[in-house]
Amino acid sequence: MRNTTHHHHCRHRHLIYYFFISLTIFPLLTTSINLITPTQFLTGNQTVISAGEEFELGFFNPGASNNWYIGIWYKKMESKIVVWVANRDSPLKNSSAILKINSDDGNLVLLDDSGKSIWSSNYSRAKSTVAELLDNGNFVLRLENDKNPENYLWQSFDYPTDTLLPGMKLGWDSKSRLNRYLTSWKSPDDPSSGDFSFKLDINGFPEIYLTRKQRIIYRSGPWNGLRFSGVPEMKSTSPFNFQFAMNRDEVYYSFNLKNESVYSRLLVIHTGILQRLTWIPTSKIWSPFWYAPRDQCDYYRECGVYGICDTNDSPVCNCVKGFEPRNLQAWNLRDGRDGCVRVSKLQCESDGFLKLSNVKLPESGTAFVDPEMGLAECGELCKRNCSCLGYSNSNISSGGAGCVIWAADLYDMRQYAAAEGGGQDFYLRVSAADSGM
């Protein structure tokens, strides 16, 4: 009898001992490094952490998936919010892989358990490179002794996944010849390229489009110096600073936060919603600050050509002055997609202009922009050119400046209530009869 009791105690002691061992082992399961170098690889049980511990990079497998990926997530969040994925369209089957610097050409390369290259940063050839994760979430490949952002050899910010972080540029860069855009995940468990993209059209008067397999769902309206013409939520009272640059070297949109301790990201969700989320530290939640499409008038070309959409009206579609519905039956059944036709023909010389206030400017990829010309001169130019259908300021900040001219059919206009602070003045070409001249 004494024998078994002794045996029982032993086993108990053994369990306690085992428990202590396991406690000390767990924290060691992932170790962190701060750089990937030619001699320091990243393996499945390691992560790279940015200097101020804002972001972390490592191997992860999403949700119920058996696939493994290299991703970047917020270090301080309890749940893993992944903001970038390297090998989104070439998953690993397990986590026994290595992210290393290729000794031949200095590129980052991801090797699976058989040593096959799954993903790489293929940029060019250089010796003594290191890869570093920055506190803004950018994963950069640079020369060992050169921290100048101008000289990065490769950076994750140039290859966005589904998320735009503060400081990231959405749009065109002539140096890298990249037009950077967001593409949704396929599903919450699958980071591979989904159907939805959010991409800056750099032609004409630039604006951003949300598309599903190339088909446009929503457009932001062009940048007018203060905000995108169709996004009244970008009022200056917001916690963000928005930047938009348009010059020979680049055309891009970017944002920063006025308060560095706030987190915010712009995200294209796999269900086809564009969403801006902002982290509220006190309640520990990501609050949807803004999303699109938000209402019926946000849907692309909802009221067809020369139609104007107004959510404060019922039905929401109206024809602009001087036009009538092309298909009255459908229009009365609240399907406005056939749009409107002009009632009185234009004469060119005698035409006038009708000022529409608080409107989302028409689709503007083919519009002509002259940032130097004033509004009066713009109107003169439009009146002389018989194919010009309307004009507006290209920049409405500080009293207005610049000239935009539309010569193609006008689509996707929207009327905002004055209080919403959306849209701007647009001058529509109408016949003399309709302009009341």
Structure description:
- InterPro entries: Bulb-type_lectin_dom, Bulb-type_lectin_dom_sf, Pan_app, S_locus_glycoprot_dom, SLSG/EP1.
- This protein is mainly β.
- The chain contains 4 helices and 34 strands.
- The chain has 3 domains: 1-159, Bulb-type lectin domain (Agglutinin, subunit A); 163-294, no CATH class; 298-435, no CATH class.
- The protein has helices spanning 2-25, 328-332, 375-384, 432-435, and strands spanning 31-33, 42-43, 46-49, 55-60, 69-74, 82-85, 98-101, 108-111, 117-120, 129-133, 139-143, 154-155, 163-164, 170-173, 178-180, 182-187, 190-201, 207-212, 215-222, 240-246, 250-257, 264-268, 274-280, 285-292, 307-309, 317-319, 323-325, 340-342, 352-360, 368-370, 390-392, 403-406, 413-415, 424-430.
- The protein is elongated and about 80 Å long.
CATH class of the largest domain: Mainly Beta
The CATH architecture of the largest domain would be Orthogonal Prism
Q: State the major sheet.
A: 8 strands, mixed
- Alpha plus pi helix count: 4
> Helix/strand-derived class?
mainly beta
User: Into which percentage range does the β-strand content fall?
Assistant: 35-45%
In the predicted model, the low-confidence regions spanning at least 5 consecutive residues are: 8-28
* Shape designation: elongated
Terminal CA distance reads 114 Å
Q: Helical percent range?
A: under 10%
Transmembrane segments: 15-36
Pfam family, one: S_locus_glycop
Keywords: Disulfide bond, Glycoprotein, Membrane, Signal, Transmembrane, Transmembrane helix
Domain Apple: 348-431
